[in-house]
Amino acid sequence: MRVLAAFLLLLLTSCSVAGGPTSDRTTVTFRLWDEQVAEAYEESFAAFAKQHGDIDVVVQLVPWADYWTKLPTDIAAGTAADIFWTNTSNYGLYADSGHLLPITDGQQSGWTRSVVDLYTRGGKLWGVPQLWDSIALFYNEELVTKAGVDPATLVWNPSGTGDTFLPAARRLTVDKAGKSADQPDFNPTAIARYGFNAALDSQAVGGNFVGSNGGTWQNGDTFDYADQPKTVAAIQYVVDLINKHHVAPSAADTNTNGDKTLQLFTQGRLALFQSGPYNLKNVQEGAKFAWGLAPLLTGPAGRVSVVHGVAAVASAKTPHRDATEKVLSWIGSADGTRPIAAGGFAFPGVVAAEPDFTAYWQKQGVDVRPFLNAAHGTTFPAPIGPRVQAGATAALPILQQVFLGRQPVPAGLRQAQNAANKAIAE
């Protein structure tokens, strides 16, 4: 998840939920990267302590910028936390190498199925779902109303047949002279407001277009996007939104600033912002205009959303296996994840706690059902595999050139895929 935090190393005697440990107490360490959610866990573990007075849970906060360099070092040294957050791009490496405990908790039927599937590998579940993201369409109410656009009914198609999205995006894109992109005298070099946030963002943008065109991104643990005509067509469509139709910001701005389109949306300079619940609070705090949520665009294969989830995994080297399993069971319960949901931080991995998240946002005047409907509809998996992160890193500079328009889409995807799969095989 995208909320970064400052590094905080807490002494075990000062940050345990139930006070300082004694000889008959067990301390379980819990590591994550999100400062806001860490506060929710403190509340959760305070409730846990009332039921398990002999177990202290210590929350360790490591910022995203350091998380994935510190984690492998700590795992190799045997000093990793008893329980720690992971994502789909990284857990496979540790599961395959025997560094994680499989999850056998009987509450699995109450967990978000798509996240359970993401963390199931080799016939075993390796993580307790903690939170998840699907994708929906944020929209600026005034701008879509003025342009006569209904964001809930938009259809895209790489062939152009029945495509209502591109015409809408062109009407919503306006230059500094007030001319929209569907007018012949529109100036694409002086754009004041963009229609849509097309960018090199596989979670919020690319994966959803690929999925809704019936394409794939991976085959097992390797990438296959260059081999799939429907995937190539979807990426071509997204790249054309930027470089041909000029309805989205230049990749020169978005390749190096993942928050650029969020900033444009909250400034009123972007009409449609496709993103996840991880940006709800950012939009709520930053937007000074009326906004809402609509379902994803409908493609040839229907509405298809990327679903990504964060899970809590247990170190196979924990010296406190029984206590660790009790903590895992707690954070796999509705009561254990309710503080995350009730604080409006994220959709919880436990289905029974979802209403708390929905209720929080209802009080803010926001209907988050488009996210729920997306997660429970047809979904597109987040990247998985023990070396998928290495592959994605190798492909990134090539894909950036594709989105800049400096590399043809088919050739660029082929080059990126070759580089990615080579890195995976190393």
TrEMBL record:
SUPFAM superfamilies: Periplasmic binding protein-like II. One of its GO terms (molecular function) is maltose binding. Keywords: Signal, Transport. InterPro entries: SBP. Residues 1-18 form the signal peptide. One of its GO terms (biological process) is maltodextrin transmembrane transport. One of its GO terms (cellular component) is ATP-binding cassette (ABC) transporter complex, substrate-binding subunit-containing. The keyword Acyltransferase does not apply. This is Carbohydrate ABC transporter substrate-binding protein, CUT1 family.
